[in-house]
Amino acid sequence: MLRSFTSKRSLQSLLHHHHRRCRQNPQFPIFNPRLFSSTPGPPSSDAELRKYIGYTLLVLGSAAATYYSFPFSENARDKKAQLFRYAPLPDDLHTVSNWSGTHEVRTRTFLQPESIEELEGIVKEANVRKHKIRPVGSGLSPNGIGLTRAGMVNLALMDKVLSVDKEKKRVTVQAGIRVQQLVDEIKEFGITLQNFASIREQQIGGIVQVGAHGTGARLPPIDEQVISMKLVTPAKGTIEISKEKDPELFYLARCGLGGLGVVAEVTLQCVERQELVEHTFLSNMKDIKKNHKKFLSENKHVKYLYIPYTDAVVVVTCNPMSKRKGPPKNKPKYTTEEALQHVRDLYLESLTKYRGQVTDSGSPDEPEIVELSFTELRDKLLAMDPLNKEHVIKVNKAEAEYWRKSEGYRVGWSDEILGFDCGGHQWVSETCFPAGTLSKPSMKDLEYIEELMQLIEKESVPAPAPIEQRWTACSKSRMSPAYSSADDDIFSWVGIIMYLPTMDARQRRQITEEFFHYRHMTQAQLWDHYSAFEHWAKIEVPKDKEELAALQARLKKKFPVDAYNQARKELDPNRILSNNMLEKLFPSSEAV
Asked: Where is the FAD-binding PCMH-type domain (predicted)?
């Protein structure tokens, strides 16, 4: 049984539907000059005079009507646009967007099969009809890599654990299962995934196909956990590939961006479930340089969170809890309330400055601030003046103080500890670049950060925190940004960010423009010098033709684009699994 996706309306769709009805329905009149007949007029001189007087009055009247109908006050930039509502959309038209609302499409085809047999039927029929059904997962990719208005297939209803081999620590699952659901179902067997990304809502098929990663210089990206998988392909039907069965295609398709087949089933190599001890502390770049090699080699998981316009670096390490020593005895110096107090104070101060919304009791007119988490407070603070550098610096300094008072330890299972509250809607760009080997780090990763921080300050970028830096071992998947044939190679991943803490269309557009300027500067100064390439779920396709051509040439130097396109030609000759992004990034030789 196929199920449809819930829909939402948009202004563009409403306008389109309205104009279509105007053409079809006589109740919506259309101006036709032929309906007006001509009559004899006054003498030409009087007629000319009246004509020009009439034009003048018309212009003045239109100007006055426009001014008083749309009075732009001083705070007009903070007002939300009101949608015009004409006629309802068709029930079968769905709007699908990614979680941050930065990319969305409207489609009449959003299919959700409940079995591999249904999926095979969908793919077969779509191939015959040459109708696109792009695979899309949970919609968490910041760049909407799985979206297309031509049609999509989603495996959310194919979410079962099919088998567990406790001895070999392997699990076979349907690709639509979400990460959190998977780890919850296999924990009774004493196993879990080797590593996790920041969140747990991804479908397994999606998190593998885009080459997602966690952190730990000894741990590879998540696609390396895949030891076999079933692909439903348009041209060859369902095929099973692994290191033993068609290894060349396996290493190409494991991080295949959904372009070589719909991933239906995946067998993953798991590890023993362990409790971890997380240690969070505040450092600075001088101390980081002294201890960086030790941090990478001695910690199973480590990441740095840099706070622009400050010298603060938040270090987060995670390691298996010692069975002999047990959990750490250290108690935190500050409570959560005390850690948040400085941020709350800034929030109240900023409310007074920007909105005057503080009552006599000292509480804002908005929801009680004691109910807000740190990331929610940060979003509300940034929303007040997101592109004012001085305001952003105040917010960043408050964040540094929050982390200083949040130093300490916590203990939990890996799926509980290895997460990160990424905040609200946002634009993000994350690059991956080589950082030497585990035995001999190149220190290029810290040089990259130093140049980035200098760039931010030189160009007065209103850059919020954090700039997140993580590490992985290499991947053997040919399309992974962390691909290397040398086992000891390590890679650093650095993410820059700008939040979209408001739904005001004008303000979101301004933040978007500033973010892409920020991203462009990092690209121009850093990417080529450090051989940095963007995460597949965060790469954005340039609109400029020259920039697009340069990106295509760059990708071709790093990745086996010709082999990838040849595999697409063999497995999906009608390109039914593709979308505009894939076609732009990997144009066929015929298209070029």
From this structure: 102-273
